[in-house]
Structures are given as C-alpha cells and as structure tokens.
C-alpha cells in the first residue's frame, strides 16, 4: 500500500529477527516506556538503512554510531548511522498515518542528510521513503514534510565515490601440482607444528600412487565477527551476503581470538587421469584442540553457486569433502560458523 | 514517469524489471549510477508482490522471520551479482524466485534451526509490534530485573564527581548547564520546554548539548563502570 504523501521511489526493507534482537537489547535497559519505544524504533530504522546500504555496496558502521551507544541513547534521541570517512545519516522513524518526520534538534548540522523510515504496525517492514540532504533542510526545522523528500537515489549525489571493489582471485589448484602455490597458502607443517600431522596423509585418497602425487596446502581461518570486520584496504567481495554476515578476505587474518573459532582449512589435489584431479577439502581443529567448533559448516558450490556438498560438525574432530574435478572447473568453498562466512574461490 | 510497480501487469512488470536490470549492468560496479539503478530495481521487485513464498505452511512460528532473512540474502546476492543476470536466464522475477526458493529460503531456514544464530536464541526473541511498544512495560519483555540504564545515568549526572557537568554551561548562563539539561532530557522534558525556561533558542541549546555530550560520554561510561 502506498503511503499517500510519499514520492515514488520507496524501498520496503524486510525486518529480520536479528534487527528486532538488536532493538530489544537496547530497549530492555529503560523503564520509561516512552524512551524505550523511541530507542526500539530508532534501532530498527538504523538496521533497515544499514541493510539497504549493504545491498547496494555502501559500507556503514553501526558500532561507531551514537545510535548504538547505550549511554548516548539514554541522553538523546538519536538514530544516526556512520558511513566511514563520509559522515552520518539520520534514520528517522515515521509511524503509520504520519505525514511528517520528526528531526531531533541534536542531529542538526551534523548529518549528510535524513532518511525517513516508515514502519508498519506489525514492525515487519521498514519502508525507506526518500532522502533529505542537510543542506536543503533549514536549521530550525523540527518536522520534515514527507511530500518534500527527494528520491532515495539522490542520497548518492551526496556520497563520495566508493573505493572500487576488486573481485577475489581464484586459486588455481592444478598449478599446485607444478609446484606453483600462491602466497597465503601454507604447508601442513607450518599450520600444525610441532605436532606430527601425517595422520592426514593417509588413506583418504584411494591408492598409494595418488598419495604420492598429492599436494596439500592450507590456511588458518578465523571465524569471529571481530576479525571479519577488519577489512583489507582493497575490499574483496566473494559470495554476497548481507553486510552483517561480514565476509572477510582470508589473506588478511589476524590470529588472536579464542581457539574455538579458529580452524585449519586444508585443500589437497592429486592428479587422476589426464584432465581430472581428485580434490579434497578438510577442516581440522587448531593445534591443542581435539574437536572442531560445534555447528561449523563447510559447503562446496559449483560454478552456478549451487551447493553440491556440505558437512556440519557436531563434536567432530575433522570434516572432509572429496570430489573429482575436471581441469578448469570452478568451485567455491564456504566455511561458516555463527553467521560468519569465509569464502575461497578455486579453479581446478 | 513509469506507473508504480504494483500497478503493472505481468508482461509490463517483467519488461520494467528487465530494463532496470540492464540499466544497472551498464554502469561500473561500485559507481553511484549503479547504486541508483539497483535501488530502483530492488524497490520494484519488493513492491511487485510477485516474490514467491516457498514452503508456505512449514515453520509456522518462525516463517516470517525466516522469510525476512531469506529476502535480505536474496537482495544482497541480486545486487552483488546483477552482472550474472541475462534475459536468456528468463525474467528477473523468475531468476529471483528461483534463487529464493532453491537457495536463500533453505539457507535461512537452516540458520534458524540450530537454536543459537548470531548469538541469539531464535525461540526466545520475538518481534515487538507498535502495539507492544505502546502498551507494555519494557521490563516485561525480559523479566530479569535489570536496573534501568537511564536511572544509572541520572544518578551519575546528579553525583557529578568532578563537577564537570555542572560547570559546562551555555555562555554566561550558568543555570543552563549540561547537568541540568541532561537530567531534564532524561526526565522527558522537550527542547521547547527548556528553551522557554531559559529563553534560549532551541538550536543554541541543542548544539551546546550535543557538543558536550560527545565530550562527556566517555567520562560517563567511566563513572558507570
């Protein structure tokens, strides 16, 4: 249903349970129902804008925003969203039947602009109604008329160009058989020293001949949101999930987090027949751990991005997926834990 | 100007979406023009009401939540991979519905089945509605007796261990100090109320407050911890 006063280009963002979860965490800290409601709606508004920006490739940082700071929330009415190196947007909640949008005086002059967000009564959908640049809003204005909004797309007139995204390189596995391995891949000994690791080099592959020709390399993966949000300067996007899943370029790992969220990711390739190879993907616990983290998942996707194999750990000490690939065949691996996904692209 | 997406019939809608997809593809990845085009495409797809509802009837309690999650992933993918779409694959909606039903809905449903996802227990979080917000008490949502943050902040402000909050005031108006204004704001007084009380314009008061809030927030957190 179109809100009668709004301009044409609006965007109804579905609100997920995790958006409500964020809102509730802040909401619960207040006894005053009026304040609590304000915070709940402000949080949902910020979540909706954050989601939309993620879809179109604009990075935004909720944790750096005042709207995500409980002390500042308590002391002011704020629904800002920080765009790193650019400024902040104010995401203003609009209730059903409203024809105007309230602008908190505290935000005046400090924002790139305002995005009114219309909620439905069930709080299932947050519709972005448009945009009002700060330079077009007079200083004393407390209520913005919804009929005067610019289209949502005019937001991009006020944002600086985003850094160009480079696509993630594909690791060429057949090259490994020639001894050419890209940087970032370590040998098993490097990953799992000083323990002897050669329980991995046994009868997982069919014959001893194949065993002799297997090349194995791996990486240490860190599956925590904190690590995932430390993005490299040249952001590499692989499989596109919403920003809150925080894809990480695995070449920029920092190894500091709890061992429970680190795993060793190994890839082995051995030639089979003329244009084929046996490939296996293995996940092992880091040194000192007996089991993999619970609910760790690994998936292999084909070149159409369809999942062709997957496994999940439940008190497991190792996960392995084997397949036979044809030369030049492309596939992608995805290792996931608690909403954090790390992706690697390969070509056989 | 095109009529709104919800009023187009199917062939017109398909055509409209195809044009929008092609328009997005024409611009370089990451460019503002592509972002604008994607915005229009996503908006039209969401408003078309032609996105499928897979497995309707399953997942009774969590269906809408799973569906919302699936839609978010779908659009993340569509925007990121718009270059992969071609009319040889069929219409945009066909492509989207295929992805939604065969992949994203399934993935979203699997993410909700283990009970802890993104650090929350899906069965214990429920979505509040506007009615809830207007009627219920926040402390009922989580029956733990968490002390109100606002009360703690207010106590900190009143105590003002180093006298900072009281001393910071609007030029030559010691009564209009940060401590007083912050407490009034916590108590629910509006900017207009304060403006009338001090005979200071709202923008002057609010910008004073905002600047000092940024300065004092770290201090307050130290006092609170």
Please give a quick description of this structure.
The complex is a heterodimer of chains A (348) and B (225). In chain A, 17% of the residues lie in helices and 30% in strands.
Task: Enumerate how many helices of chain B there are, as a single number.
Answer: 11
H/E series of chain A = EHHHEEEEEEEEEHHHEHEEEEEEEE
Gyration radius of chain B (Cα, Å) is 26 Å
Q: Give the overall silhouette of chain B.
A: elongated
How many H/I helical runs of chain A? 7
Number of domains of chain A: 2
User: DSSP strand (E) fraction of chain A?
Assistant: 25-35%
Major β-sheet annotation of chain A: 6 strands, mixed
How far apart, in Å, are the first and last alpha carbons of chain A? 50 Å
Mean pLDDT metric of chain B: 86
Give the domain tally of chain B: 2
Rounded mean pLDDT of chain A is 79
Structural class of chain B: mainly alpha
How would you sum up this structure, described in words?
- The longest helix of chain A has 23 residues, at 33-55.
- In chain A, helix 1 runs antiparallel to helix 2.
- Chain A folds into 2 domains: 11-157, no CATH class; 166-347, no CATH class.
- Chain A contains 7 helices and 19 strands.
- With 348 residues, chain A is α+β, with helices and mostly antiparallel strands.
- In chain A, the strands form 5 sheets. In chain A, strands 1, 2, 3, 5, 6 and 7 form a 6-stranded mixed β-sheet that branches.
- Chain B has 225 residues and is mainly α.
- Chain B folds into 2 domains: 5-121, no CATH class; 149-224, no CATH class.
- Helices cover 62% and strands 5% of the residues of chain B.
- Chain B has helices spanning 10-26, 32-48, 63-80, 92-112, 130-135, 138-141, 149-159, 164-167, 178-187, 191-198, 202-224; strands spanning 116-117, 120-121, 169-170, 173-177.
- In chain B, the strands form 2 sheets. Chain B has a two-stranded antiparallel sheet with strand order 1-2.
- In chain B, helix 3 (63-80) packs across helix 4 and helix 7 (149-159) runs antiparallel to helix 9 (178-187).
- The radius of gyration of chain B is 26 Å and the shape is elongated.
- Chain B starts with 9 loop residues before the first helix and ends with a helix.
- The interface between A and B is large, with 82 and 83 residues.
